[in-house]
Amino acid sequence: GGVRMRMEGGEDMQDAVGLSCTWGIPPATGTHAKWVRLNVGGTVFLTTRQTLCREQKSFLCRLCQGEELQSDRDETGAYLIDRDPTYFGPILNFLRHGKLVLDKDMAEEGVLEEAEFYNIGSLIRIIKDRLEEKDYTVTQVPPKHVYRVLQCQEEELTQMVSTMSDGWRFEQLVNIGSSYNYGNEDQTEFLCVVSKELYNPPNGLSSEPSHKAKV
């Protein structure tokens, strides 16, 4: 058994040397102190303590400082975290560069769930803002058109069009011929079609700024 242990030790040493060559990290002590392996739901992520501790209050920062959290580790020494690795990528990248970058198919709600689990406050705020914006644009429904047909006589037309209330738009005039005889005059009857756009404001709030609110 002793020989095997030494061999494994030798392999480990080679690995460590290999790492220090590729990334130019000081060997031995520096390697352990700087790099952290996380096994999130079976997927291993390699990152640095500095990255994980960008968000001081986060679970990840407390984890890699190893103070109060005694987390299980897998056979490679990676911290085991029972969460979905799909959403961990964007979270780790956010800690690396401070931007939220998502594939187009990735649900922001999923990332929000993980950001809340890891307690990354600044990311939670960013995603919530994005979701609110999205909600707002989705609920900006296209206006519905309401049509009204008004019947009137020729002489009433101009008056009616000029007194049309706000928001109503004149659409079409249909001449339906004369149906009344007043004395000798034929009064031509018209059907006047008017329309109005109705907006459905999101969440029952008016989409127009309210001028009534007095301070």
From TrEMBL:
Domain of life: Eukaryota
Gene Ontology cellular component terms for the protein in this record: Cul3-RING ubiquitin ligase complex; cytoplasm
GO terms, biological process: positive regulation of cilium assembly; proteasome-mediated ubiquitin-dependent protein catabolic process; protein homooligomerization
SUPFAM superfamilies named in the record: POZ domain (SSF54695)
Domain BTB: 34-135
CDD domains: BTB_POZ_KCTD17
GO MF term list: cullin family protein binding
Name this polypeptide is given: KCD17 protein
